[in-house]
Design goal:
The protein is about 40% helix and about 15% strand. By secondary structure, the chain is an alpha/beta fold. The strands form four sheets. Strands 1, 2, 3, 4 and 5 form a five-stranded mixed β-sheet that branches. Helix 1 (about 30-40) packs across helix 2 (about 50-65) and helix 2 (about 50-65) runs antiparallel to helix 3 (about 75-85).
């Protein structure tokens, strides 16, 4: 395990720690009026019940659909951009690492991601994302190919379909070459590296541009007692890698990006057109084979 990871801090949703001017939204507040304020640039604070936040987001969607009627790609992209911008002005208050509103979910990430501060405001959509991620983390993802349950860290990519893992497992079972060293690019939730370990590979250099992925895999390695087998690296492709490997594994993003990529999950799904040429050029320097595997 790379000890430099001890100083790696996770990416986390932005929060507001100072007092700001807001419009308070209660169950009897005019939702349409509140939405217009959000679109105009005013913060709206969800009060009373968690469900009030869901109500105003639904109203925001209805309102924007009146203006964004183009069903083509660019039109839908413009709608999503407008929704994202306005919806992130809908805030919810956190005190003592818990949501203040009633009937709200318990979200452990509020303490895990913000250990240094207990009281703040955060956007309602970010809370929805953290809630979903916390449910996955708590419940875990059963990976039958591995015979284990993984607990993905917030903001790290994890698969919900496993056909490719079955194919990779079949390949590993037939592989007869050296199993001294392997490299995984884009480690994500660690599944492919764990498959390599379970199939006898001794040491693995695993890299990812997503800090949260690296932090999550580090935690899973400790839980599964794989720390001695994996060196984790936060970097782009083979950055900081001085290893030449018997096998290089890369489960790449699958959609060509038509927008500027953000760090984190965006790069797990979308790729820039230069990604694959860069990968193959660099991979040649890190394989023990003429053509690689």
């Amino acid at each position: 395990m790379n000890h430099d990871l001890l100083t790696l801090q996770p990416d986390r949703p932005p929060i507001i720690t100072s007092e700001i001017e807001v419009i308070r939204f209660y169950h009897d507040t005019d939702a349409k009026a509140a939405v217009q304020e959000m679109i105009a640039g005013t913060y709206v604070l969800v009060e009373e019940f968690y469900s009030n936040g869901l109500e105003i987001l639904a109203e925001l969607k209805r309102t924007l659909l009146v203006y964004y009627t183009d069903k083509k790609f660019q039109g839908q992209r413009d709608f999503r951009s407008a929704f994202r911008e306005a919806s992130h002005r809908l805030l919810v208050e956190v005190k003592g690492h818990k949501l203040v509103v009633k009937k709200a979910p318990v979200i452990g990430w509020l303490k895990v991601l913000y250990p240094e501060i207990a009281d703040f405001y955060v956007s309602f959509p970010e809370i929805q994302g953290m809630n979903s991620a916390w449910q996955w983390y708590q419940k875990g993802i059963e990976v039958k190919t591995l015979g284990i349950t993984l607990h993905p860290f917030y903001g790290a990519y994890f698969p919900t379909r496993f056909e490719h893992l079955t194919l990779f497992d079949r390949w590993l079972k037939k592989y007869v070459g050296s199993k001294e060293k392997a490299i995984e690019i884009g480690v994500g939730s660690g599944i492919l590296s764990f498959q390599l370990i379970q199939n006898g590979f001794k040491t693995i250099f695993a890299s990812d541009t997503n800090k949260n992925a690296i932090i999550g895999v580090a935690q899973e390695c400790k839980r599964l007692d794989y720390e001695a087998n994996i060196t984790l690296n936060h970097g782009d492709l083979f950055e900081n890698c001085d290893v030449k490997a018997d096998v290089i594994v890369f489960n790449p993003p699958w959609l060509l990006a038509k927008h500027s990529l953000e760090e984190g999950l965006d790069k797990a799904i979308y790729y820039e057109k230069e990604l694959f040429p860069r990968f193959f050029e660099q991979a040649q320097k890190h394989t023990l084979h003429v053509m690689g595997k």
